[in-house]
Design a protein that fits this description.
The complex is a heterodimer. By secondary structure, chain A is mainly alpha-helical. Chain A has a single domain, classed as MetI-like fold (Orthogonal Bundle). Chain A is built from 13 helices and 2 strands; from the N terminus they run αββαααααααααααα. Chain A is globular and about 75 Å long. By secondary structure, chain B is mainly alpha-helical. Chain B has a single domain, classed as MetI-like (MetI-like fold), CATH 1.10.3720. In chain B, α1 packs across α13. Classes of the chains: A mainly alpha, B mainly alpha.
Chain lengths: 293, 283
């Protein structure tokens, strides 16, 4: 943590950490404590007075069927995003690591969607699936499926999941490819000599060996789907139709800025904070026990 | 590859090419949409092959009024806003993280660990979970609708601080010992030895943070009400809303293309640094 050889204490180190600490205090810790404080308050209908109500906001939240439904929806959404993007990335990386020459070429062509902003990813997909003009609804019509994500909640959900997963494939691919390339060749060759074909080698050797990466990516993808997909939802569905794509992050924003329910929104923020803390702890515990090949 | 199986090799390339096509499809369709005139973009089925209006559309998007019927800022101004925001966020994060990592690794002073944990906590407080109160703070400080408001609240960085801490810890102690024998003070040591040693790490981090800054959405959406402060990424959503009345998909998709070109270019042109930055910061 600290260097064995170091400088003596003086004013200088305080000056050095000052910018970071001031920003942390003003824009992170103070607002977070405000969110916690506000979660104990209820403002009256005219915004004139507030009342300290202890845990009433939380009680309301936990008995609110809309909130619980949103919680469940978020879980389904993030699991499907993680499964779809990790599955696609695993298949592509599994094939890419077999390519002797040109693996880096394919990598270049697969990693760039990482740089596309979530809201842009949403715009691209909503355009492709535009019910009147889009290309996919046109083809789907031919096989007898009517696509309209403005009307069908399930179709809206499918659309935001695809858009969110599309953007995340790049990231997962990169980590899977790196993990597979770090497996010693001798292990794979030994299995080949024993007569294991490519598919068998993948499932019995490569896949178990990269399981730490799978776990790491699962956490990262869950965090991504929970918090960074706001732009996609906002651009594609605005949480609708009805509330069928209102995930937790979108609900905090909507209740706070549109519905102006300050106490309720703050209580939701606190619940989200607990979730982030839990995920961060899981992520860090994993890093400590990182498996070496 | 371990053994020679022509069919397996063929299958490998087939799957990869299909993967590349599937990943690129949304952007291809966007590009095609940006090359047709508004009339063609209003009739289904939409084209799959580029037309000849690319330059006209780009010109209209960049320097014209953009989407007719909306009173937005011109697109070139939005691009400048995005660039300013991305550069301020990435350089700001790098500078304050370098400084605080230096203090934490190379100085022994009271409250050192307190500061370290305060920085660590920011990792657990993404904008999304403290939207309203942070907005209030920025409003009270009078930073709405300004570049400072867009960037400063986002530049505290635990990941960058940790990364530089990691880098500094690998610098041999003998470096500092010999620098001190030669009479170098802390700042001299920082500028003449630590900074040059962490040059590639800084570059790698810059690539990641530039993309992060450019792609900010929720935060700019909250604190800018003045159209002259709109960033390009934000504008897409406004255009999508306007599209419900007057669908000028050629202009909307040209704007989307312009919004994604800078960060995508950075990833492809600096792929090595990008990969390094991504794997280093997420550990």
């Amino acid at each position: 943590m600290l260097k064995r050889v170091h400088f003596p204490s003086s004013l200088l180190p305080y000056l050095l950490v000052a910018p970071q600490i001031i920003i942390t205090l003003v824009f992170f810790l103070w607002p977070a404590s405000q969110a916690m404080y506000q979660s104990f308050l209820i403002e009256d209908a005219f915004g004139l007075g507030t009342e300290f109500v202890w845990f009433e906001n939380f009680e309301q939240l936990l008995t609110d069927s809309h909130y619980l439904a949103s919680f469940q929806r978020t879980a389904v959404f993030s699991l499907l995003v993680a499964a779809l993007s990790m599955g696609t990335a695993l298949i592509l990386a599994g094939f890419a690591q077999r390519v002797v020459r040109g693996a880096m070429f394919y990598r270049t062509l697969l990693i760039w969607p990482y740089a596309v902003a979530p809201v842009l990813a949403g715009a691209l997909w909503v355009f492709m699936f535009n019910p009147t003009l889009g290309i996919f609804p046109y083809f789907l019509e031919m096989v007898g499926i009517t696509w309209n994500h403005y009307l069908s909640g399930n179709q809206a959900m499918a659309l935001v999941i695809m858009a969110a997963a599309w953007k995340q494939v790049a990231y997962n691919f990169l980590f899977y490819l790196a993990a597979m390339q770090s497996i010693p060749n001798s292990v794979i060759e030994a299995a080949a000599i024993d007569g294991a074909g490519p598919a068998r080698r993948f499932w019995t050797i490569i896949f178990p060996l990269i399981s730490p990466t799978t776990f790491f990516l699962l956490v990262i993808n869950m965090v991504y789907a929970f918090f960074e997909t706001f732009g996609i939802i906002h651009a594609v569905t605005q949480g609708g139709p009805g509330t069928s794509t209102t995930i937790l992050v979108y609900k905090v924003f909507n209740d706070g800025f549109v519905g102006l329910d300050l106490g309720g929104s703050a209580a939701q923020s606190v619940v989200l904070m607990v979730l982030v803390i839990a995920m961060t702890v899981v992520q860090f515990r994993f890093v400590e026990r990182k498996v070496e090949y | 590859m371990v053994e020679n199986r022509p069919f397996a090799t063929f299958l490998t390339h087939l799957v990869l090419v299909l993967g590349v096509i599937a990943i690129a499809l949304p952007v291809w369709i966007t590009f095609v949409a940006a090359t047709h005139d508004p009339l063609r973009m209003g009739q289904a089925p939409l084209p799959m092959w580029p037309g000849d209006h690319f330059l006209t559309n780009m010109k209209q998007t960049l320097f014209g009024s953009g989407l007719s019927g909306t009173e937005g800022a011109p697109v070139w101004l939005m691009l400048l806003n995005s660039l300013a925001m991305a550069l301020m966020i990435s350089t700001g994060k790098i500078i304050i993280s370098l400084l605080s990592a230096f203090a934490i690794v190379y100085f022994k002073f009271p409250f050192r660990m307190t500061f370290f944990w305060m920085i660590f906590i920011t990792l657990m407080l993404p904008v999304e979970v403290r939207i309203l109160p942070t907005f209030e703070v920025v409003a009270d400080l009078g930073m709405l609708n300004s570049y400072w408001g867009l960037s400063v609240p986002l530049i505290a960085s635990a990941t960058a601080t940790f990364m530089f801490r990691q880098v500094f810890l690998t610098v041999p102690d003998e470096m500092l010992e010999s620098a001190r024998i030669d009479g170098a003070g802390p700042l001299r040591f920082f500028f003449d030895i630590l900074l040059p040693l962490s040059r590639t790490n800084i570059a790698a981090l810059f690539v990641i943070l530039f993309i992060y800054g450019w792609n900010q959405y929720l935060w700019p959406l909250l604190i800018t009400t003045d159209t002259s402060m709109t960033t390009i990424v934000m504008s897409i959503k406004q255009m999508l809303e306007a599209a419900e009345q007057s669908p000028q998909w050629n202009i909307i998709m040209a704007t989307a293309l312009l919004a994604m070109i800078p960060p995508v270019f950075v990833v492809i042109a600096m792929q090595k640094l990008f990969v390094q930055g991504l794997t280093e910061t997420d550990k």
